[in-house]
Amino acid sequence: MRVTVWGENVHERRDPSVAAIYPEGMHEAIAAGLRERLGGEAEVRTATLDEPEQGLGEEVLGATDVLVWWGHVAHGEVADAIVDRVQERVLAGMGLIVLHSGHFSKIFRRLMGTSCTLRWREAGEKERVWNVAPGHPITDGIGEHFEIPHSEMYGERFDIPEPDKLIFLSWFAGGDVFRSGCTFERGAGRIFYFSPGDQEYPVYHHPDVQRVLANAVRWAAPRLREAPAGSPNSPVGWWK
Amino acid sequence: MRVTVWGENVHERRDPSVAAIYPEGMHEAIAAGLRERLGGEAEVRTATLDEPEQGLGEEVLGATDVLVWWGHVAHGEVADAIVDRVQERVLAGMGLIVLHSGHFSKIFRRLMGTSCTLRWREAGEKERVWNVAPGHPITDGIGEHFEIPHSEMYGERFDIPEPDKLIFLSWFAGGDVFRSGCTFERGAGRIFYFSPGDQEYPVYHHPDVQRVLANAVRWAAPRLREAPAGSPNSPVGWWK
Amino acid sequence: MRVTVWGENVHERRDPSVAAIYPEGMHEAIAAGLRERLGGEAEVRTATLDEPEQGLGEEVLGATDVLVWWGHVAHGEVADAIVDRVQERVLAGMGLIVLHSGHFSKIFRRLMGTSCTLRWREAGEKERVWNVAPGHPITDGIGEHFEIPHSEMYGERFDIPEPDKLIFLSWFAGGDVFRSGCTFERGAGRIFYFSPGDQEYPVYHHPDVQRVLANAVRWAAPRLREAPAGSPNSPVGWWK
Amino acid sequence: MRVTVWGENVHERRDPSVAAIYPEGMHEAIAAGLRERLGGEAEVRTATLDEPEQGLGEEVLGATDVLVWWGHVAHGEVADAIVDRVQERVLAGMGLIVLHSGHFSKIFRRLMGTSCTLRWREAGEKERVWNVAPGHPITDGIGEHFEIPHSEMYGERFDIPEPDKLIFLSWFAGGDVFRSGCTFERGAGRIFYFSPGDQEYPVYHHPDVQRVLANAVRWAAPRLREAPAGSPNSPVGWWK
């Protein structure tokens, strides 16, 4: 299983408060958590926006079974041609894990078809993440709920299509709720959106968050590695 | 209820076989069927690709509750700015009925997020349309199934997200099946895809097809007429 | 549109605190709210457990388009034959609105196939009900959220099948969340589960709750009034 | 992974035509196919209606991760207490594969909440099974479609809740279509209904059918082995 963690890597180099939490960048922290939990099951690499082809060349994507995406302030800089390429790979079977502010990334909006708007508040408040899908592979080892002591609030209404499966629901001390873990299937690919994870809080060091991400990578790993046929003309009697 | 039937209006002016079936254009035939069945419930107008702003200016869309879409050979000519505008209106609540080859229109692919590919065959074969949602408003007055004596085959696998509700399943004499009637909700808008309706067959004169379309327009009519809020920052204590 | 509000009518006659809020019984308060809001659109009657055939004889059900259900301490007293009858009517198209503690009624568990367990707490805490389906008929006229100042807490995990459509999500001051408004379609019938409404709080006098219930009755009203065919043997050549 | 294949084992002992195809019983043929394909991954045992506790005592179910169910003429003989027990196990996480005429079994109807009626015809006609979920674990190794030369027709409308995921759609030579492979999640358990498999045809010797069943067992295997909590009262301040 080959995993690529993509990060825009902007906050970490610009904002000392973020660099203090994630000195190697958020993508490296996420990758480290996956390496520790997946061990020999997966090869985990990282890629960033400032690399050639924005880190997502044909070769990288061709060698990626599951792509993890973190972006925030640089969504607009991601080239449309890269978004086309990632979409095509997802429809052909590549797994995609979209994190937190990635709700507004071009690739997530492209795959959802909706605005992906939501409410938000930066107040470091408590978030309680409720497990509403016991028995699902993504909640393996997760109890009834877990807590993030300080979190950015993401709240409803979240403008997404009805998820294929609702996995987590979050409660916020300030009065909001959020569908914080959702699965979607598009083409032959599996997508998991998971909202905890702002740059200002050490959320990716949280053991339950790390466990969810490792579970999600396993769940999203593809069975297909090439796209199903396009739109074939099926001549009369083709099946005889 | 204000309905706009949009047609690309290319085949009808170019192909004598199509003009013979639809002398006023397919859009006019579809509109006539809706007018007859909806009567005073709806004002039905038409719009075509060759009109200013491709028939879909702000004023037209602002006065449209349900948009019906038929396109085929000219999908690529529809301007991206028009697609943006239609998408925005759908998310704000406008109903959208996408017909037949509209599966490959920019607006449908945009809203689905998938390739919308399918199998096809032009052999004038029999299509039997099975009603799998008795009790749904779109099947009101439709029996267990109806038949289209000569139809273009559209077959699986159809690359769409899992529909919110499967309404019709089609059987084709040549050995294929198709999810021929599907509903989707996106933002505050309702979308119905209905596959019968090739330009080479008089499908839009079929009474059951006309009934389905009239039902679909009623079902897709909006409850909201302005978009819900975007992504508001919700300050601490906003709700006290 | 003929609506029957069924109430077990036990708390109201036994508990002075409940009788103080609902002197005519909860079913009468619910019915009064529907009558006021639906006006001439609907005939609203009530039925209770202590009536002949537990209020749900063939004649009553045969003249009911939408059944509203409130029960709590007497679920076990509802006869299985009555549950069979109600289930059969729902599958044939009758709408069903299940309220609050009705989550544990025989009819709801029968239709869901799951345990319908949930967490609960009787602490009179604040419930904020978030509208996650703007544009849906059931949320017509409802804003982004509304509040119930004192409510019994119903919390996740709620053991139901994935709803066809999630309508409301509730936040509770004590730290819980709940899928408080959910739609399901079973057979030709439409089901809406709505959790606010404990006997100890005047929830059915709340204007937004009343509006939701009136909307839900309209949404659940049937298009079919007789069951689709059972399991017919379809002989060879039946369709020629 | 511990698999139990349950068969009612009536046709095989009564009807020479069935015994000729399945001399050891259908359950043994299904089990043999699973053993061959799952190899060391699974222990596969069988159980039948004529055994003590109808083959499904506490001990057997407690040692079963996935239960495969084939029944037809003896649905009514299965004791309600056994059905309660199986349902409870499914909600606690046990996988359940329901085959063919099992659509009318007590356990399937219990879990669906609907009538599970369908159309049918015994004419030995051709069935083509279309794969509409490429990329799903259950279709691993299955192409665009496969054929069963002689099959009993099961056709729409099939009265089930909207499946969580539609996996296969069948085409029948006689003019019918069917949702022949459907997944459902109930409680913590996963359910797969697969319609091919009448007692009069050697369907369970078909290599693609065997592959689908082996894939389905893998997919349905539980992550949980004990039920989540019931309906706990959550006292004020429980989470501090």
Can you give a write-up of this model?
The structure is a homotetramer of 240-residue chains. Chain A is 25% helix and 29% strand. With 240 residues, chain A is α/β, with parallel strands linked by helices. A nine-stranded mixed β-sheet of chain A has the order 2-1-3-4-9-8-7-5-6. In chain A, strand 7 and strand 8 (177-186) form a beta hairpin. The radius of gyration of chain A is 18 Å and the shape is globular.
Beta-strand segment tally of chain A: 9
Secondary structure tally, helices of chain A: 7
Backbone shape of chain A:
globular
Assembly type of the chains comes to homotetramer
Poorly predicted ranges of chain A (pLDDT <50, ≥5 residues)?
none
Computed over alpha carbons, the radius of gyration of chain A is 18 Å
Mean pLDDT reading of chain A:
93
Strand line-up in the sheet with most strands of chain A = 2-1-3-4-9-8-7-5-6
Counting helices, strands and paired strands, the structural category of chain A is: alpha/beta
Major sheet attributes of chain A: 9 strands, mixed
* Main interface: chain pair and counts: A-B, 41 and 41 residues
Percent of residues in beta strands of chain A:
25-35%
Helical percentage of chain A:
25-40%
User: In sequence order, what are the helices and strands of chain A, one letter per element?
Assistant: EHHHEHEHEHEEEEEH
Q: State the distance separating the first and last CA atoms of chain A.
A: 39 Å
